[in-house]
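Thread: "does anyone have the structure for this chain?"

Original post by V.I.:
We have the sequence but no experimental structure in hand. Need at least a predicted one for the grant figures.
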Amino acid sequence: MNIYAQKNKLSLIEILSDSCFVFFIITEFAFVHSKINRISLIAFSLSIILLIMEKKKIHSSSYFLFYALFIIYNFLNIYENKTIDSTVASSMLGTLTLNLIFYFFMFNYVVLRNNLFITITQFINITMLITIIIVFLSIPTLFKQRLGNSININSNGIAIYATIAFLMVLFNYLKLNNRKDLIKLIWLGIVILLTGSRKGLFMIVIGYLMFLYLLFPKKKFKNTVSIILMIVICYMLIMYVPILYNIIGNRVEAVFNMFSSNEIDEGSLISRVNYINLGWSYIKNNPWCGYGLNCFMLIPGSYGVYSHNNFIEILFSSGVIGFVIYYINYIIIIIKSFNLKAQGKSYVKLFLTITLLLFLSEYGMVTYFERSYIIFLIYNIAAIKISETRSMIKGGEKN
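Reply from O.Q.:
Generated one for you, tokens below.
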């Protein structure tokens, strides 16, 4: 019998919560900020209320305390008229409050279901299904532009989901040695390349490196050879296959040029650097409290968009105080994960890798209000909770 198999038959409410979770992830992936996405969010939340009632248990974490403090702090800034536009800041504050409620339900879902294998398998299967549909719908422009552009789905979003699914599949493959997972790995790798996403390529290479060293710390030579081989193969593909060069190779080349000669000759990179410099110039003038949530888009030179850098966005909107409150959660998650990693908790190693990747990638994207990214932090704190609970039970049994 598979060691990851469910021991007991699922109840109707567990089946309902699983179904609502799948429905939510699909809409968050393909129909984010739409009416159907909001319906899925409500349905999922209601199903978790039923699950909590059935299990007669409810769980929490320090994560929600600090997230709530971040919301309260920004509310006080609005109340004391320390924002550029209180209406814009209040609207974002409402989004964060709704997100907090959802994250709490999401956390309880993963902990109460108490089967991380099933949880990550669900995410893998959903990502496989949606990427197949996206590729099918994009066939007319498949090799002419970045995957997703022709059907109005963000290419970077596709790449990040595909990268995280890639790491989850790799984890399952290393644990179970199922050859069918190799097909999934190849497919997800192709999807990431077709998105033309530098973030996706960065995450898959760095994630692969982290993953091998966290799971197999003693096999340093083998890991190093494997990582070098992967980097060489990726480089050869994107730089010497004309189709891939046009989609992603030239974008990676622009990054190399920026670091080697300080020359920025690619529009997207120029914009991002300008936004960072613009945000930093304002932060220096008001470092402690900031200018209000989502207010970066209101300043001259922002062209009505956010800063494309989560660190700059948080500092600009909430100042150093808000920045510390927001990022203390990352510090707690990473410290707890490293402690559990030392105890051999393999699922924690998986989600620690994902958390570190998301943290690094925040240099190139704004994530603090995006449920589709923060849910992976929720996976991590749920994995920590499950691992700690199991350790306590085992410790009690020994005593």
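V.I.: this helps a lot. The chain has 14 helices and no strands.
O.Q.: and Confidence is low (pLDDT under 50) at residues 1-7.
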